[in-house]
């Protein structure tokens, strides 16, 4: 990627200016460069939607739009430009379309000119604000236009017949503008804003300068509840990115965390303002959990890749090479770091900093003819640090060094003991630094203790991995308690203190309750403290943590606490939802001691049951949104209840089926489609594995179904048939039905039929239905091991028109892979390896997001090692000279070496230079090319890594096994035949087994490279400094399908790169050596068997030494002399393979070190 990176001045077209233009350039006068180009059948950057229907393009709603993926710059794929965020310019855009089409682009619409033929028209747009090419877009189609009634500068565009739902969806957008302008004390930086809703969008929200392209699936009517929050959040985030991301863009990729983080931070403040503080804190907690899980499972995320490259299987230095999942979590972490920064300096000061950045950018953008003054419209980490210092007078460099330049999050383990005699809490906090993605935190940490006399905060300095603190309590034991307990909110409540320790005044304890750090806390305290925290703590994050902890304490007291929260109307609705799900797990753990009706049935009938007959649900009324979400959640939670026989209780099953029967939405102003979908999910969750009878010889049929399974299948069939006549919003009922059918198949109630899901996955079906069908198909592939379905899915990913569906299908394969690493599986074949490798390197070169998805799948299936399914010639044996072991397949990596590939150790070997590492990857070093030796090159050291030796009676081959450390050397043995044997081999052995060309199966041909060795003095030890900078096993940005070397001696007749017949036909011995000298050399070799040489990458030539030994009866030393002037080549010699004239040994054996 470095060779075409515009940020480094590469990948650009150089235009030579004529001499007559030089005076204009010296006077800084503008000049015009015209580039005529044609774009034919583009594969990336621009997308055409052409439904297969009859009629004109406008009648079929044909349209096109451009796209980019997250931070990727894709504008160069549809028009010539300097495609980088750091090159700014103004834009004049002209788009000619048919008369019934509308063109939307960035900037102000100056005019629309009708062409003389009256068949087309031209839209003229002008963007006077300096903008980078990646922030330029366009969309053309038969759009219906809606001018916002509250802000005339805002215009909305949608496809035909969607204007009514467009009005409702966009009716609030003016509130987002007003909020941001008031918060930042700065006006919207552009003169207009356009929202375009298209079909088959690349991502749901794609912001550009003065416009944003949205997915049509975000539109909704006033009858839909669930979609409202998601759509409004995305639209608010798009407006925030107009300020930071489009107007103030990143200077380079290492600065992307700033624009992304600030935009997400502003969008979070909007959510906090419009949806409440509980919704905002719950969102922060959820994002923090996602970041923690990813860094613990995959590896740390470095916000500034210039500081540290990381150890991922992809290259984080370029936007086009990072994993899409990494990019998604990158956004969330950037938001969390900006929020932490707000806590450090205060929200008011941070807003002043953002206002200062906008003021400087606006002033800079007004300089129309001086491009060098537009630098303030680019946001970099250094400029941000300077503005922080100017506005606040604070140095944030230590904060950036800890959280931006390093990866990982802090991981705390805490426990405490109350010392009654001293009336102190002895708190112990440890950090786990051994886990992947762990960060050593040094700094302040807040601990909150809720005592009988109130809540008290304590701040401690964390310096060591294990720290103990003594906290003096403000309260005495509960014998001296007050009547009411004051909480942190100032509220005083009555508590039942019978469960707590009579000698302790501590009710509960929390570490970092305000989420001031990016951390993961595992805290140990008694179950009654978690119960008190759940009941009386008013913070939703603390309640959520208490619910997660109480799952491990199944008891009547825990059941009572969860029930109280579920019934409490003052609790946040998402906390009540979590309580219902936790209560089902607790009930299953207490199945032997559970008394009374099934969990939550009484609560459900109390809230939603009819007054005259509580067993019958009332008519739907979703005006209370909290009750609406509980109505969907409680049946799904109850469906997971199990009795002693591990099956769903019959009364729970009948209760769920009754909800289908008595569902009445006739007087409800809101749609019940999501509620009906949740009932189908609940019915599917009651399914347990079927009891099969072996020996009948007949397949499964509806007659063999159990009564419960048959009723569920009948309900699913009824809902599917109804959906075909009256489809609901986004086909959510169909989605749930497909998932339920797959659950019936997995549990043995129905025969697995992949054709059923393939039919629903065809192009033309609604996107959500296709994605669900593909998810079920991926599960079928894994369980039933069906190669045909797997290759059908790969064909779809390569050729389907909807790129978002292709992306989701690939992510589903990654999350649910068809087989595990090194597993013997019918799907684990050479063809699959070749297919994925080709998709990564050539087929999907136009779509970097999908290409990185394939790289993630390849790493999931094979890791960094050679795939075990690749064939190795049968006559080759792999020997490990260090461990004295023999292996037939070098792809099998020992378990003790597996951690080596994942480690993130900062030792001297791996810390040469991060910038030099990127440069060295671009050069391919010839490991067999050596220079004349010096006297001191034969110094020996102990070797760290043993090299695999592949031996044959008639051929030799060198194999490059994966090694993370590019400075390590290899030791291998090469054994060849005599001249006579070689000739016989050429005549008889013309073929070798086929080896697929994969990143690790590309072995260097020794027959090609041996001739590049130079001659040295006799008896001198010769070593080959094997320096490999291109790691073919690592899926990084410079990975490519390796090719076999084609240069070989003319006389060597080989059909495959691994064939070495006729290897020594042009090599002769220089001289012979007596037995005494040979004996000394051999003893010396045995004594220094393990050693290693230091690599010198900066040298263009390598010093090399070779130890030569004799096999069987006669021992001799073979010395290869450099081709000198006056020497004559043999008939088989080439330029790269000089001949050496002397009699060859009968059976030479070499030890190349």
UniProtKB/TrEMBL annotation:
GO molecular function: chromatin binding; metallopeptidase activity; RNA polymerase II general transcription initiation factor activity; transcription cis-regulatory region binding; zinc ion binding
Keyword Nucleus: yes
Taxonomic superkingdom: Eukaryota
InterPro entries: Aminopeptidase_N-like_N_sf (IPR042097), ARM-type_fold (IPR016024), Ig-like_TAF2 (IPR057345), Peptidase_M1_dom (IPR014782), Peptidase_M4/M1_CTD_sf (IPR027268), TAF2 (IPR037813), TPR_TAF2_C (IPR057991)
One GO process term, biological-process aspect: transcription initiation at RNA polymerase II promoter
Compartments it resides in: Nucleus
Ranges where the Transcription initiation factor TFIID subunit 2 TPR repeats domain occurs: 527-888
TM ranges: none
A Pfam family hit: TAF2_3rd
Claim: Transcription regulation is one of the keywords in the record: yes
Low complexity bias spans: 1038-1058, 1131-1144
Coiled coil: none
Positions of region (Disordered): 973-1002, 1025-1058, 1075-1153
Comp. bias regions, Basic and acidic residues: 1098-1113, 1121-1130
Start-end of Basic residues biased regions: 1077-1097
Family: Belongs to the TAF2 family.
Protein name as catalogued: Transcription initiation factor TFIID subunit 2
The organism of origin for this protein: Mytilus galloprovincialis
